[in-house]
Amino acid sequence: MALYNLTVNNKKVRVDVEPDMPLLWVIRDFADLKGTKFGCGMALCGACTIHLNGQPVRSCQLPVSGIQKNDKITTIEGIGENKLSVVQKAWIEEQVPQCGYCQSGQIMSAVALLKSNPDPSDTDIDAAMSGNLCRCGTYDRIRKAIHRAAEEMKVSSNGIGKVGKNEVIAKP
Ligand code: FES
Ligand code: FES
């Protein structure tokens, strides 16, 4: 066992665990954040995707000993903590989830994609999201939601906010 001081969603989390424990278990069982899911446990499905210093990573294959002192871990609970993020809103508007199991991982990958590429094409989306599998087959809606979020971001950076599907208001 060894002590680790982690920063998860801007909060300090101190754990005494085996060095090879996957970060996924630390997040779920010690930080008590259950939004990040276990799927394959082999870095193949993307259900366990979190951000490490803003980059999407598979937490099922990342041993806690691989986390450095100043690393920032963000889980789905840390995305839109105080108010829903533009991606989460788009997910609701497009009614993306079916069973929902894969969706926190999908959203983490989508947020990272939009950060690096605010106006992705379908091809960009498919490439960035290809590591996130959805057994329910929500891929079309995921694509639409990412385009919607990209539009939302464009509109808000122009000083205009969208309030629903067809309603647009000018922001002060
Ligand atoms: S559970 Fe980590 S990629 Fe599937
Ligand atoms: S919504 Fe069910 S697995 Fe993706």
UniProtKB/TrEMBL annotation:
The keyword Endoplasmic reticulum does not apply. It comes from Dyadobacter sandarakinus. This is (2Fe-2S)-binding protein. Pfam families: Fer2, Fer2_2. The keyword Oxidoreductase applies. CDD domains: fer2 (cd00207). The lineage of its organism: Bacteria, Pseudomonadati, Bacteroidota, Cytophagia, Cytophagales. Residues 4-79 form the 2Fe-2S ferredoxin-type domain. InterPro entries: 2Fe-2S-bd, 2Fe-2S-bd_dom_sf, 2Fe-2S_ferredoxin-like_sf, 2Fe-2S_ferredoxin-type, 2Fe2S_fd_BS, Beta-grasp_dom_sf, Diverse_Oxidoreductases. Keywords: 2Fe-2S, Iron, Iron-sulfur, Metal-binding, Oxidoreductase.
